[in-house]
């Protein structure tokens, strides 16, 4: 059975909707102007979303608790499922509840250890640092360190400070698998990953907001990094004083990141909904739209806000969605939009969007070729090939990437 978020919110009273900052008409079609499509979803996801909704009543059992567990794990929402179901006293089969509880406790303990080590490093840095994505959200938006998984910890520094930060990390026992000859901003990767033996902390050091394995010709050079740094706001990570992006820039970054992963896991959309709710009084929607236009991130922002409103009832003004709605979608973007509308979210589907938003066939062909066969330095960075290796190794790696590409798309067909 397919549902829309209108079904979930239909039983909310006016007081409850106001408390959640979700207009009662949030999921109804506008009477005029742009029509914003509904998203289909399975009965299992619908039940999961009802549990996450603090005011939705649970009056029946799901079709299958193992499916609910599997879906929550796939979407990165299992820790939220455990806390929400516990708070609502939902009767969950013992084995499922124990699995969720153990995952939550392990994640909480792991995150605490990561944050302790991160804070120790941040206190040593003498240069300004912006903490990004999950680590920033857990330190500000989320009230519980166990509610969200952390893969690596992303921090942003200025390009001229990378060598200084690298020195501090090296002295602290952290090493990167690859050493760049320079820290210039590219249309591909703009980061290094550092790790330490015996530590759960993987530190992802960025010197630009865009960090993509695809050649990002659309907006990488349009993002005003000086503006991001100027408008960054204070953030405390345990006992360390650092910075995080301003709410409007945080939404743009999370949207760009979610688009890069084709909205594959819904935790990225939940993050966006949480940022909107947390900063609802401070969030300047007009400034958000202006910066989205300036940074050429209108479409990633639209799809993120639309999905946030559809899946989780994010309080996004209808006029904002209508103003951001792409007016001239190419064939690839229309296909991408249709896939999202039918609940089909898979890695690499963003290719359709990116290709459609590159003007001219020559640039599109270049995009495909540069994606499969990046420049030697970029390919070495992606694959961890050290400098000085034989050129034949680059050819082997490039061939392997091309074979993966063919396998992925033939598999999806």
Write the element-wise H/E pattern from the N-terminal end onward: HHHHHHEHEHEEEHEEHHHHHHHHHH
Low-confidence stretches: 1-35
Strand order of the largest sheet: 1-2-5-4-3
Helix and strand composition category: alpha+beta
Major sheet: 5 strands, mixed
Q: Count the strands?
A: 7
What fraction, in percent, of the residue positions are helical?
40-55%
Give the termini distance in whole angstroms.
24 Å
Strand fraction band?
Answer: 5-15%
Task: List descriptors.
19 helices; globular; alpha+beta
Q: How would you characterize this protein structure?
A:
- The strands form two sheets. A five-stranded mixed sheet has the order 1-2-5-4-3. Strands 6-7 form a two-stranded antiparallel sheet.
- Residues 1-35 have low confidence and may be disordered.
- It is an alpha+beta fold.
- The chain has helices spanning 5-9, 14-19, 43-52, 65-74, 78-87, 94-124, 133-140, 162-171, 225-231, 247-260, 267-278, 285-294, 298-312, 318-324, 331-341, 350-356, 361-372, 376-383, 391-412; strands at residues 130-131, 153-156, 175-176, 191-195, 203-206, 233-237, 240-244.
- Helices cover 52% and strands 7% of the residues.
- Helix 5 crosses helix 6 (94-124), helix 10 packs antiparallel against helix 11 (267-278) and helix 15 (331-341) packs antiparallel against helix 16 (350-356).
- The longest helix has 31 residues, at 94-124.
- The relative contact order is 0.10.
- The chain is built from 19 helices and seven strands.
């Amino acid at each position: 059975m397919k549902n829309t978020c209108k079904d979930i919110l239909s039983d909310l009273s006016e007081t409850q909707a106001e408390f959640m900052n979700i207009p009662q008409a949030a999921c109804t079609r506008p009477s005029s102007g742009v029509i914003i499509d509904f998203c289909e979803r399975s009965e299992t996801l619908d039940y999961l979303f009802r549990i996450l909704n603090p005011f939705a009543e649970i009056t029946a059992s799901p079709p299958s608790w193992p499916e609910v567990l599997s879906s929550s794990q796939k979407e990165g929402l299992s820790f939220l499922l455990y806390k929400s179901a516990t708070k609502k006293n939902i009767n969950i089969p013992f084995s499922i509840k124990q699995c969720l509880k153990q995952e939550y406790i392990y994640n909480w303990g792991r995150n605490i250890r990561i944050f302790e080590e991160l804070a120790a490093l941040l206190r040593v840095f003498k240069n300004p640092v912006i903490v990004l994505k999950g680590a920033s959200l857990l330190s500000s938006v989320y009230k519980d360190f166990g509610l969200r998984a952390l893969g690596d910890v992303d921090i942003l520094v200025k390009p001229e400070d990378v060598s200084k930060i690298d020195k501090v990390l090296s002295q602290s026992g952290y090493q990167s698998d690859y050493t760049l000859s320079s820290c210039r901003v590219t249309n591909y990767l703009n980061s290094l990953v550092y790790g330490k033996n015996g530590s759960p902390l993987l530190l992802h050091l960025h010197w630009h907001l865009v960090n993509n394995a695809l050649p990002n010709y659309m907006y990488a050079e349009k993002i005003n990094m000086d503006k991001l740094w100027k408008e960054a706001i204070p953030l405390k990570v345990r006992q360390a004083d650092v910075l995080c992006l301003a709410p409007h820039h945080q939404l743009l970054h999370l949207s760009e990141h979610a688009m890069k992963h084709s909205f594959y896991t819904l935790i990225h959309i939940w993050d966006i909904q949480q940022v909107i709710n947390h900063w609802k009084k401070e969030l300047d929607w007009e400034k958000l739209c202006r910066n989205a236009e300036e940074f050429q991130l209108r479409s990633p922002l639209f799809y993120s806000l639309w999905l946030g409103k559809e899946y989780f009832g994010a309080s996004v003004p209808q006029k904002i969605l209508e103003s951001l709605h792409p007016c001239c979608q190419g064939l690839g973007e229309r296909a991408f939009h249709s896939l999202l509308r039918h609940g089909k979210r898979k890695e690499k589907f963003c290719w359709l969007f990116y290709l459609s938003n590159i003007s001219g066939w020559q640039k599109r062909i270049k995009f495909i070729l540069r994606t499969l066969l990046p420049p030697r330095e970029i390919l070495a960075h992606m694959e961890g090939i050290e400098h000085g290796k034989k050129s034949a190794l680059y050819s082997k790696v490039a061939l392997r990437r091309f074979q993966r590409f063919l396998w992925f798309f033939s598999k999806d067909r």
